[in-house]
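Tip: read the tokens left to right.
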């Protein structure tokens, strides 16, 4: 009687890599904004402004989840939480796709 084994398909492997890459890029954008904020980057600069807008959109759900009296702590925790969640969930989904 033949045993059924799952053969990893190339498509699911590529999909898993794509999901992980997207999650990593989203987290990188958020982490870049945290770094730019901590380094007091010129917010009048178009690149800095673009990164800030993108990170704010990505972390909109987490930024005011907790409030802190120090603004830098609010930025690090509020945006950092979103980055960690994107990486965590993205890699879980990628692993699931990879095992399919």
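Filled-in amino acids:
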């Amino acid at each position: 009687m033949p045993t059924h084994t799952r053969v990893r398909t190339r498509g699911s492997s590529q999909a898993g890599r794509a999901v992980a890459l997207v999650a990593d890029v989203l987290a990188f954008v958020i982490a870049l904004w945290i770094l730019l904020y901590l380094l007091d980057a010129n917010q009048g600069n178009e690149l800095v402004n673009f990164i800030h807008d993108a990170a704010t959109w990505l972390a909109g759900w987490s930024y005011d989840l907790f409030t802190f009296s120090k603004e830098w702590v609010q930025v690090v925790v509020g945006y950092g939480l979103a980055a960690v969640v994107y990486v965590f969930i993205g890699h879980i989904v990628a692993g699931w796709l990879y095992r399919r």
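The helical segments are 10-38, 46-58, 71-99. The CA atoms of residues 8 and 100 lie 6 Å apart.
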